[in-house]
Amino acid sequence: MARSIPSRPFGSVAVAMVTPFHPDGAIDLESARRVARKLVGDGCDAIVLSGTTGESPTTHQPEKDALVEAVKDEVGAEAMIICGAGSNDTAHAVRIAQGARRQGADGLLINAPYYNRPSQEGVYQHIIAVAEAGGLPVMVYDIPGRTGVKIERRTLARLAEHELIRAVKDATGDVAAGFEKMIETGLAYYSGDDALNFAWLAHGASGVVSVAGHVIAASLRRLVEEVDAGNLPAARAEFTSQLPVIQAVMGGGQGAVMAKEALKLLGVVETATLRLPLVGAEPQERENLRSVLAREGYLGV
Asked: DSSP 3-state assignment of 4?
C-alpha cells in the first residue's frame, strides 16, 4: 500500500553540485554544464549551486551569477535550480540572493551565519533579510557542525510563518528531532546527510540533497520511488547498495574533494581542481575511490 507522498517544493532528488575549475583555478562553465546534464540524466529534479560542495566561500559574485546562468540554460527546463546564499555578512548574502534571482534561479538555500555565531534573533533576522531580498522560495539549511550555531526550534517555528520559507535541509544528524520539527512547523524536510537518506525518507522527508549523488543519483531516484510505494524492504536494499559509494565520497568529510575526483574518474570533468583552503585527495583516497567505483559498476573494468 502506497504511503502518503509528502509535499516537494524543491523536488525529491537534488544534488549539491560541485563548481568545476580549470587547472589555473578559473571557473569552468562548460564542465558545469556537463555535470548538470549528467545529474538530470541520472534522475535529479533539482540542483543546488554554490553550496558547501560548490566551494561557495571561495567563489565570487560574477562567478556565482555566471554559474547560475549556465546551468539554468542547460537544464533549467528539466530541474529546479537552487542557489546557495550563504555568508556570515548579511549584506553579502543579500547580494548573492539578488544575483541568483536576476540569473533565473528558482529558489535559495540559506544557512545560519557562520563563524560569528549570532544569537537566535540574529539568525532569524539574517535569514528573513536574505529571503526577502531574493524574493524566491527558501530552503533553510541547518548545519551547525559548519556554522557553529544551531537553528533552534523556536527560531525555526518563527521562520516557518514566513511565506517564502518552504523547507529545511537538515544536516544536524538528529533524525528524531527533525521528525518532530517537521510535524511542528509543517515545513518540507530534506536530508542533508547521505548516510541518513534512507532514515530521513522513511520518516517522511520530502527528498534528499546529496553529494554522493554525483555518482548515485539514479539509485537515489529508485530509493525515493521505493519509499513512495511503501516498499521499505526494497528501499533498504537500494540504500545498502549505495553505502560503499557514500562512504568513499563522504567518509573523510570533504565531499567537494571526493565528488570532483569521482567526476574526473567518470570522465565528466577533466580536472579535480579545487581552490584553497581545500586541497586534493591523497593518493590512497583516490585509489580507494577508483576501486569502489569500479567494483560497484560505475567504471569500466
From this structure: coil
**8-state DSSP, 16:** E
Given the C-alpha cell 557562520, which residue does it identify? 114
pLDDT digits (tens, 9 = 90+) for 128-147: 999 999 999 999 999 999 99
* Residue 10, CA atoms < 13 Å, CB-side half-sphere: 34
What residues are annotated to the active site? 141, 169
Q: Using the structure block, give the residue that is written with the C-alpha cell 567518509.
A: 251
User: Across-strand partners of 191?
Assistant: 170, 208
Report the SS3 class of residue 169: strand
Question: Which secondary structure element, helix H or strand E, spans residue 63, and what is its range?
Answer: helix 61-75
Give CA–CA dist 285/264, Å, rounded.
14
What are 45-65's pLDDT values in tens digits? Answer: 999 999 999 999 999 999 999
- CA-nearest of 295, 261, 300, 299 to 278 is 261
pTM for this entry: 0.96
Contact, 133 vs 97, CB < 8 A? yes
DSSP string covering 170-224: E-SS-HHHHHHHHHHH--EEEE--GGGHHHHHHTT--EEEESTHHHHHHHHHHHH
190-224: pLDDT as tens digits = 999 999 999 999 999 999 999 999 999 999 999 99
The cell numbers describing 61, all together, are 559574485
Cell of 58: 571561495
